[in-house]
């Protein structure tokens, strides 16, 4: 298996293919708004929704930078700000999830269609696509574990 195939496998396992951990799409499938905003200890842990927003921030930023659309990339003054939520409504929760799924799948398409030289091309403000997607896949796996833990704490 080449590096693109390996990354495609890792990327898919983060969203919709079962591997060593459950894929995020399945984990979030039946998470209600109340479960998405719940925190076991006020201020000590992020909620499921905050974690999804954080993952979306970094994936969307990479996508926009790869596409050369830096004017559309999300902005945050620091890492903590990437966990911020819009108004807590069911509509906004559903939109956050869907946007995450769409951005993740768009990055997957880019990876699948990239030629060898595209994989290693420097992305403005980032490293190469290969290194960024590898890092994001590990980052996703870490936070998916937290999301699974939070959902289990709530009996989901």
Provide an overview of this structure:
The protein is mostly helical and 156 residues long. It has one domain: Up-down Bundle (Four Helix Bundle (Hemerythrin (Met), subunit A)), CATH 1.20.120.450. The chain is 62% helix and 0% strand. The protein contains 7 helices and no strands. The chain has helices at 3-15, 24-28, 33-37, 48-67, 90-113, 116-120, 129-153. It is globular. This is DinB-like domain-containing protein. It holds the Pfam family DinB_2. Residues 24-144 form the DinB-like domain. It comes from Heyndrickxia oleronia.
Q: Low-confidence parts lasting 5 or more residues at pLDDT below 50?
A: none
State the share of residues found in helices, binned by percent: 55-70%
Instruction: Specify the biggest β-sheet.
Output: none
* Strand element count: 0
**Could you name the CATH class?**
Mainly Alpha
Total domains, how many?
1
Topology as H/E string? HHHHHHH
CATH architecture: Up-down Bundle
Strand content: under 5%
Shape: globular
Give the C-alpha Rg. 16 Å
Please report the distance between the alpha carbons of the first and last residues. Answer: 36 Å
Which class best fits the helix and strand makeup? mainly alpha
- Round the mean pLDDT to the nearest integer and report it: 93
Number of helices: 7
Annotated CATH homologous superfamily = dinb family like domain
The CATH topology is Four Helix Bundle (Hemerythrin (Met), subunit A)
Protein name: DinB-like domain-containing protein
Pfam families: DinB_2 (PF12867)
Domain DinB-like: 24-144
Organism: Heyndrickxia oleronia
């Amino acid at each position: 298996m080449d590096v693109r195939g390996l990354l495609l496998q890792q990327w898919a396992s983060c969203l919709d293919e079962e591997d060593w951990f459950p894929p995020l799409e399945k984990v979030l499938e039946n998470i209600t708004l109340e479960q998405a905003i719940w925190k076991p200890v006020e201020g000590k842990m992020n909620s499921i929704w905050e974690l999804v927003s954080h993952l979306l921030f970094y994936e969307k930023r990479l996508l926009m930078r790869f596409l050369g659309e830096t004017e559309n990339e999300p902005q945050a003054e620091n890492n903590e700000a990437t966990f911020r939520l819009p108004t807590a409504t069911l509509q906004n929760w559903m939109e956050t999830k869907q946007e995450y799924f769409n951005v993740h799948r768009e990055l997957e398409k880019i990876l699948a269609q990239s030629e060898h030289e595209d994989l290693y091309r420097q992305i403005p403000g980032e490293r190469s696509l290969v290194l960024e997607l590898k890092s994001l896949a590990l980052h996703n796996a870490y936070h998916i574990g937290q999301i699974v833990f939070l959902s289990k704490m709530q009996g989901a």
